[in-house]
Design a protein that fits this description.
The protein has helices at about 10-15, 15-20, 40-45, 65, 85-95, 105-120, 125-130, 155-165, 180-185, 195-200, 220-225, 245-250, 290-310; strands at about 5, 30, 55, 75, 95-100, 145-150, 170-175, 190, 205, 230-235, 255-260, 280. It has about 300 residues and is an alpha/beta fold.
Length: about 300
């Protein structure tokens, strides 16, 4: 039986010439669509008809799109997060959904650490000045005895805690799920409330999933709890932080700065006020992007697509 396959996952599409050999033994009609980040509802409504399987990124697979997908059997999500997929509608329509849990743990965790070290030691500022012919000195800070809070103790949050162990900071963590005492002991994490982390930590890392309880977790109300002028690091999902509130926190110097890999609307444009602050480090939703993990996800996403079509 010939299947119609739609491929929209940005990283997979970029390497499709190399990856197309994976499909050579299958009778598929494949359509590859290039995107800058992801496809929105209006784009997908034009593409989803008569598609049996989609290998997607963070595309807006909402109820309207899924109900318009008259033949869709499987969604193979490139990566981990599935918050862009309406799972309730998928269940109702019997559309199978696959992802790769924990796919980018190492890459995202090391990006968080790189952000913190870069910011605290002012490496980027020093580098830029030298390229301008300015030879000056920047006094940085260490992590020793600093209070570091991690909101979200899944694979990535726990790995971040492991990575900072040699730096001798005090790690506080929060998660709505129960975390085993063995894991907490191994990573030397003290479980605390989110309010405690907001009030007492000098570095706050967002590493939680995006869901109804975490959207705008950093908001006008919670921001009033911030006391220690912390560095805010978000390597999770953009909408967890209300960007209007974040900009206000930066303007009023309530926080020391921000390191952001994700944003409420992507790609981030030059119009964004976040691009105007010297104490903000920005990357292009790129924390996942390591050769080892990307290659693993390419293969697993392909396998999930085949598995879903065969079931």
């Amino acid at each position: 039986m010939k299947y119609n396959i739609l491929i929209t996952a940005h990283p997979f599409v970029n390497e499709y010439k190399k990856l197309r050999k994976l499909f050579k033994n299958h009778d598929f009609s494949i359509r590859v669509v290039k995107t800058t980040q992801y496809l929105r509802e209006n784009d997908l409504l034009k593409l989803i008809k008569n598609v049996d399987g989609i290998l997607c990124g963070d595309d807006e697979l909402n109820s309207a799109v899924l109900n318009n997908a008259n033949k869709l059997k499987v969604i193979s999500k490139w990566g981990t997060g599935i918050d862009s997929i309406d799972l309730e509608t998928c269940k109702k329509l019997k559309i199978k959904v696959f992802n790769t849990p924990g796919a980018f743990t190492e890459g995202v965790a090391t990006q968080a650490l790189a952000f913190i070290l870069n910011f605290n030691r002012k490496i980027l500022e020093n580098h830029n000045n030298i390229k301008l012919g300015i030879w000056n000195k920047f006094e940085g800070t260490t992590l020793v005895n600093k209070n570091l809070g991690i909101i979200g103790l899944g694979r990535i949050g726990l790995r971040i805690a492991e990575l900072v162990l040699p730096f001798k900071c005090k790690v506080f963590g929060n998660d709505i799920k129960k975390i085993s005492s063995q894991k907490l002991k191994k990573c030397k994490i003290n479980l605390k409330s989110k309010n405690y982390i907001f009030k007492n930590c000098e570095i706050i890392i967002i590493a939680t999933d995006l869901n109804t309880s975490t959207k705008h977790l950093i908001n006008s109300k919670t921001s009033r709890l911030i006391k220690k002028k912390p560095l805010l690091v978000n390597i999770a999902r953009g909408p967890i932080v209300d960007e209007k509130v974040l900009i206000s926190l930066l303007k009023n110097k309530v926080i020391k700065g921000a390191c952001l890999d994700v944003f409420e609307k992507e790609p981030l444009t030059l119009k964004s006020k976040l691009t105007k602050f010297k104490n903000v480090i920005l990357t292009s939703h790129n924390a996942f992007n390591t050769t080892e993990e990307v290659n693993k996800v390419h293969l697993n996403t392909y396998k999930n697509l085949i598995l879903g079509l065969k079931k």
